[in-house]
From TrEMBL:
Protein name (Swiss-Prot/TrEMBL): Ribosome biogenesis protein BOP1 homolog
Subcellular location: Nucleus, Nucleolus; Nucleus, Nucleoplasm
Annotated Gene Ontology cellular component terms: nucleoplasm; PeBoW complex; preribosome, large subunit precursor
Stretches with biased composition (Low complexity): 150-163
Family: Belongs to the WD repeat BOP1/ERB1 family.
Composition skew (Acidic residues), residue ranges: 69-80, 89-124, 132-149
Cross-referenced SUPFAM superfamilies: WD40 repeat-like
Protein origin, superkingdom: Eukaryota
Primary localization class, coarse: nucleus
BOP1 N-terminal domain sequence ranges: 202-460
Taxonomic lineage from the root: Eukaryota, Amoebozoa, Evosea, Eumycetozoa, Dictyostelia
Chain segments carrying region Disordered: 1-187
SMART domains: BOP1NT, WD40
Length: 808
C-alpha cells in the first residue's frame, strides 16, 4: 500500500492515544485492543513472525467507525498461499525460505509500516482501543511482492465483503475472523448478567446485578429523585431516550430505531423486505434429526406468573363468568372397545335384554403338563398304581406325567377331542346367571343368625363313663328301649350287655366270628336282642330279668311255624333254626337264621315283629325282610343295579328306606312301589337315619360329608355339612330331643341342634353345639358307632380302641 493512500474516518473526534506496544522481534507497533477480548496473531510474511497482542488496559468507549473506503485498488489479484502455521503462530515454510532475498527489503518495509501507522494516527486521531472486537492485524505478501494489511476489527460488512473479493482467500488461526463485530454487539451491550429474571427481585438491594466478572453493578439512574428526573427533561433527546432497567442506564434511540418503531406501529415491513418472495424448499435435510441448539431451559418457564397460559386461563374464566362460553355438564359417552384378552369383568356392555356374561376361562397349564417336566413331577411305580386305584374325581390330574427328550417324540393327546367337546358342552349348556353383589364392610352380616348354644341345652357336653371289657374294636352298640341296658358287639367275638348306671357287664356271649351288628327290639314289651356275625343272625332273649321271661316275648318266640307262603319257598337260601344246644339255650340264644353271605347291618321295625338285614356281598338280593312271629323271610328287591348298603324303617308309617352306594330309594310297603329317589351326591353311603317326625333324613358317607334331606322340600340335600376330616361312620337322630350327631374316623363326635318345625313354610334349624373327642386311633380307625339314650340327652360311642364311652 502506498504512503499517499490513507484510510479516512469521518465524524470521529480525536482521543488521546496511549503508548503503543511494539514487538521485540519486528519492533512493529501493536494497536491496543479492548480489555478481556481475545486477539488474533499477526502474520509477517517477511520475518515469519506472529505477534500476539494482549493488553490489560481499560477499554475506551467511542463510536463505531463508519465505512472505510480504499482509494487505491490492486490491479492484479492473485491467490495467497499460506504455509502450515505451528503452535507459535509462525509458518514453517516461510522459515525455510531464502533468507538472502528477504534481507534487502526488511529495512524498507519497516520504515514504510512506521510511516503508515503514524500517518493514520495523525489524520484520524482515533485510539485503536475504540475499535470494538479488533483482534489482530494480518499481514501477508502476495506473489508479486506487494503487501497489504487486513484489519479484521470493527469494520462494516460492506468493507469486509469488498476486501474479501479483492484479496481472495484469507486465513488465520482466529475462529471469529469471519464474523462481523455486529454479531456480538447486542450481547456485549448487556452489562448486567443476571439473566432473564424479574428485576424486582433486586429492589431491596443497593445493586441491580452482576457483570460478567461477577462484580456488583451499583445503582445510578434508579437512585435519582423526582427533581433530577425533571431536570433531565431539558435534554433535547429526552423524547427519544428510554430507560434500560436491566443495565440501569439511559439509551438514546437512533433515527433507524425510530423508523423501525414507526413501521411496527403502522404495520409496515422494513425497507428492502419482500413479503411475497417465492418460497424456496431446500428438500429433506439429513441433519434435521439433530438439535439446532443446546441452550438450557430459560428461567421464564419456571415463573408462576406472566405466562401465556395464565393469560389464556384468565380470558376463559372471564368469558365463563360473563356467560359468553356455556359449559355443558353432560358427560361424553365413551366408546367401549372390546378387550380381546380381558376377562370381561370390567366391561360395561349395555345390551337390550339379557346381558352378556363372559365364560369362565380354563386354567393355564403348568410344569406338570410339560413334555419335559421336572423330576419331582414324575410318578414312581407305587404312585402310578395308587393313581389307577383312585377315584377319577379325586385324582390331582387326569393324566400321568411323562418325560420326552424332544418335542418331536411327543405323541398326540388321545383325550384332546373329548375334552374340547366337553368344554363346548359346558359353555353351551351350563347356565350362567348374573348377580349384583353388594359390598358389605361388616363381615358379621355374612354369618347366619343362629341362637347361642347355651340357649339350646340340654345336649351332651363331656365324657362321664367308660365301659371297659372288650379286647378288640367295638363295631356296634345298641340301647334297650327302657334305657337301662347297653349291648355291644366286638371283634373279640363276644356280645356283652352292660348296666348303664353302674357300667357293670351283666351278660357275655362268645361266638365263632367277629360281631358285625347288634340291635335291641324297639318295642318295650319284648326283651329281644338280635346280633349278626359271619353269615348268621341269632335272636337272643338275655336272662337279665331272671329265669322267667315275660309272656309277650315267649309268645312271639315260641309261636309254631304252621303256615307256609310262596315267599318261603322262593327263599330257600335263608334257613331258620331253633337252637337245640343246651349251653346256648341257657345263655338265651333261641333262633339262628343262616344266610348265604355275611350280614353287615340289622334294622328293626318300630312294632318289633319285623327286621331287615343287609348283605352287600350278595348283590341284587342283598336286602331281606324277616317276619319274626312267622319265621319267614322275603327278598323284595331283586333288580338292584348296585349292592345295597343300609336299610331303615319309617318310625310311624309303612315306608322302607334303602340306600345303595349313591342313591336313597323310598318305598311304600303297602302299595309296593317306589315313592322317591333321593340324589345324595355322595360317592359311598355309610349310614342313614330317619327323623322321629318321618319327614327328614340324614345321611353320612365315606367321602367325609353329612347331608340333610327334607322330603317335603326336594329330592336333593337341604344342607350339606363338610366338617369331618375323615370318613363318616354313623349318623343318628335322638328319638325324643331335637338333637342329631355324627361320628368319624377323625376321633370326633359332632353334636348338632336340629329343630324341625310343624310349619311347612319354615325350614329346619341346624346349629352346631359340641365336638366330643376322647377316643384313641387304632390303625387309622376312630369312632365306629354311636347311639342316643332313648330318654336322656346322653350319647354312647364305641371305638377302635376297644372302649365304650358315655357323654352327658
Amino acid at each position: 500500500m502506498n504512503k499517499g493512500n490513507k484510510q479516512t474516518i469521518t465524524n470521529k473526534p480525536k482521543v488521546a492515544t496511549p503508548p503503543v506496544a511494539t514487538n521485540k522481534k519486528t519492533e512493529k507497533p501493536v494497536v491496543p485492543v479492548k480489555n478481556n477480548i481475545p486477539t488474533k496473531p499477526v502474520l509477517n510474511n517477511k520475518n515469519n513472525t506472529a505477534v500476539n497482542k494482549k493488553e490489560n488496559e481499560k477499554p475506551v468507549l467511542g463510536k463505531k467507525r463508519k465505512d472505510v473506503e480504499e482509494e487505491e485498488e490492486e490491479e492484479d489479484e492473485e491467490e495467497l498461499s499460506f504455509g502450515n502455521i505451528n503452535e507459535d503462530g509462525f509458518s514453517d515454510e516461510d522459515e525455510e525460505g531464502d533468507d538472502e532475498e528477504e534481507e534487502g527489503d526488511d529495512d524498507e518495509e519497516e520504515e514504510e509500516d512506521e510511516e503508515e501507522v503514524a500517518t493514520f494516527e495523525e489524520d484520524t486521531g482515533i485510539n485503536r482501543a475504540l475499535l470494538e472486537n479488533e483482534d489482530s492485524l494480518v499481514e501477508y505478501n502476495s506473489d508479486d511482492g506487494e503487501e497489504e494489511s487486513i484489519n479484521s476489527g470493527n469494520i462494516s460488512s460492506s468493507a469486509a465483503t469488498s476486501g474479501a473479493e479483492e484479496d481472495g482467500k484469507r486465513w488465520s488461526s482466529d475462529p471469529n475472523q469471519f464474523y462481523d463485530s455486529e454479531d456480538s454487539s447486542e450481547d456485549e451491550t448487556i452489562v448486567n448478567r443476571i439473566g432473564n429474571i424479574p428485576i424486582e427481585w433486586y429492589d431491596d438491594f443497593d445493586h441491580i446485578g452482576y457483570d460478567v466478572d461477577g462484580n456488583k453493578i451499583m445503582r445510578s439512574e434508579s437512585t435519582k429523585d423526582s427533581i433530577d428526573r425533571f431536570l433531565d427533561q431539558q435534554d433535547p433527546n429526552f423524547w427519544r431516550t428510554v430507560y434500560d432497567k436491566v443495565n440501569d442506564k439511559k439509551v438514546v434511540l437512533s433515527d433507524e430505531d425510530m423508523q423501525l418503531l414507526k413501521n411496527i406501529q403502522n404495520r409496515n415491513f422494513i425497507p428492502g423486505f419482500n413479503p411475497y418472495e417465492d418460497w424456496y424448499d431446500p428438500g429433506p435435510n439429513p441433519d434435521s434429526i439433530h438439535p439446532l441448539h443446546n441452550a438450557p431451559v430459560p428461567k421464564r418457564s419456571f415463573l408462576p406468573f406472566g405466562t401465556d397460559e395464565e393469560r389464556e386461563i384468565r380470558r376463559l374464566t372471564h368469558a365463563i363468568r360473563m356467560g359468553w362460553i356455556k359449559i355443558s355438564h353432560k358427560k361424553k359417552e365413551k366408546k367401549n372397545n372390546f378387550d380381546l384378552w380381558g376377562d370381561g369383568t370390567n366391561s360395561e356392555e349395555k345390551q337390550k335384554g339379557i346381558k352378556r356374561i363372559p365364560a369362565p376361562k380354563q386354567r393355564l397349564p403348568g410344569n406338570v403338563e410339560s413334555f419335559n417336566p421336572p423330576e419331582e413331577y414324575l410318578l414312581t411305580d407305587d404312585e402310578v398304581k395308587a393313581w389307577h386305584l383312585m377315584d377319577p374325581r379325586e385324582r390331582p390330574h387326569n393324566f400321568i406325567p411323562q418325560k420326552y427328550k424332544s418335542l418331536r417324540q411327543l405323541p398326540i393327546y388321545n383325550k384332546l377331542i373329548k375334552e374340547r367337546f366337553e368344554r363346548c358342552l359346558d359353555l353351551y349348556l351350563c347356565p350362567r346367571k348374573l348377580k349384583t353383589r353388594e359390598f358389605i364392610k361388616d363381615e358379621t352380616k355374612f354369618l347366619p343368625k343362629l341362637p347361642k348354644p347355651q340357649d339350646l341345652r340340654p345336649f351332651p357336653s363331656h365324657e362321664e363313663l367308660q365301659f371297659l371289657g372288650h379286647s378288640a374294636r367295638v363295631r356296634s352298640i345298641s340301647i334297650s328301649p327302657n334305657g337301662q341296658w347297653l349291648a355291644s358287639g366286638s371283634d373279640d367275638c363276644t356280645i356283652k350287655i352292660w348296666e348303664i348306671s353302674s357300667t357293670r357287664c351283666v351278660y357275655s356271649l362268645k361266638v365263632e366270628n367277629e360281631i358285625q351288628s347288634v340291635a335291641w327290639n324297639p318295642n318295650p314289651l319284648y326283651n329281644i336282642l338280635a346280633a349278626s356275625y359271619s353269615n348268621k343272625i341269632i335272636i337272643i332273649t338275655p336272662p337279665i330279668y331272671g329265669p322267667e321271661q315275660n309272656q309277650e316275648t315267649e309268645k312271639i318266640i315260641t309261636k309254631p311255624n304252621t303256615e307256609s307262603t310262596s315267599e318261603e319257598q322262593q327263599n330257600k337260601s335263608v334257613n331258620w333254626y331253633n337252637v337245640t344246644d343246651s349251653t346256648l339255650k341257657e345263655r338265651g340264644v333261641r333262633i339262628e337264621i343262616h344266610h348265604p353271605f355275611t350280614v353287615k347291618n340289622l334294622t328293626w321295625h318300630y312294632k318289633g315283629d319285623y327286621f331287615s338285614s343287609t348283605s352287600p356281598e350278595e348283590g341284587t338280593r342283598s336286602v331281606k325282610i324277616h317276619h319274626l312271629s312267622k319265621r319267614a323271610t322275603q327278598t323284595p328287591f331283586r333288580r338292584s343295579k348296585t349292592p345295597n348298603q343300609v336299610t331303615r324303617f319309617h318310625p310311624s308309617k309303612p315306608i322302607f328306606f334303602v340306600a345303595d352306594q349313591n342313591i336313597i330309594r323310598v318305598y311304600d310297603l303297602m302299595k309296593q312301589e317306589l315313592i322317591k329317589k333321593l340324589i345324595t351326591g355322595c360317592r359311598y353311603i355309610s349310614s342313614i337315619d330317619i327323623h322321629p317326625g318321618g319327614d327328614n333324613v340324614i345321611m353320612g358317607g365315606y367321602d367325609k360329608r353329612v347331608s340333610w334331606f327334607d322330603l317335603d322340600l326336594s329330592t336333593r340335600p337341604y344342607k350339606v355339612l363338610n366338617y369331618h376330616k375323615m370318613a363318616v361312620r354313623k349318623v343318628i337322630y335322638h328319638p325324643t330331643l331335637p338333637i342329631f350327631a355324627s361320628c368319624s374316623d377323625d376321633l370326633s363326635i359332632h353334636v348338632f341342634h336340629g329343630m324341625v318345625y310343624d310349619d311347612l313354610l319354615q325350614n329346619a334349624l341346624i346349629v352346631p353345639l359340641k365336638i366330643l373327642k376322647t377316643h384313641q386311633s387304632v390303625n387309622d380307625l376312630g369312632v365306629l358307632d354311636i347311639a342316643f339314650h332313648p330318654k336322656q340327652p346322653w350319647i354312647f360311642s364305641s371305638g377302635a380302641d376297644s372302649t365304650i364311652r358315655l357323654y352327658t
